Amino acid sequence: MNKKIIMIAIQVVVLIAAIGATWFFTRPPAPEPTTVGEDGQPVEEKAVGKKAPEYYSLSPSLVVNLQNERGIRFLMVEIELMSRRDDAFSRVEQYEPRIRNDLLMLFSKLDRAAITTPEQRQTLQDEALLTINAVLTEESGKAGVDAVYFTKFVIQ
């Protein structure tokens, strides 16, 4: 008799577990929580997270003479800026002549040997980012560019 009671109890537990699992997997999804505005209409909530990046091209390409003992060398760099801030590129446009000037001064100090490896070019990208943000900070009080990309890099 004891074995029968134990078997019945196990069957009841398995049956309850099966019913619970069936309910869990077949129930309708819970409604999304919504915020109601003053007029009683649902209000869309802004997505939480990072803003999508935006890009700005410094056109035309920058061309500088490189310091070289064996003759004339040139560097042509096409630069794209990336930012996630709303007002960054309006400030970049406003101060673009100074930004281009400071970048030309930075690039014209280089010699060919200082920019041949990918690591050296990454360092140059970092210096360009610091230069651009220094101009923006000095002129407008805040930086705004998150990254600098060289989309064309030609040494001749």
UniProtKB/TrEMBL annotation:
Pfam families: FliL. It is a single-pass membrane protein. GO terms for cellular component: bacterial-type flagellum basal body; plasma membrane. GO terms for biological process: bacterial-type flagellum-dependent swarming motility; chemotaxis. It comes from the Bacteria. InterPro entries: FliL. It is found in: Cell inner membrane; Cell membrane. The keyword Iron-sulfur does not apply. Keywords: Cell inner membrane, Cell membrane, Cell projection, Chemotaxis, Cilium, Flagellar rotation, Flagellum, Membrane, Transmembrane, Transmembrane helix. The keyword tRNA-binding does not apply. The chain crosses the membrane at residues 5-25. PANTHER family: FLAGELLAR PROTEIN FLIL. Controls the rotational direction of flagella during chemotaxis. Belongs to the FliL family. This is Flagellar protein FliL.
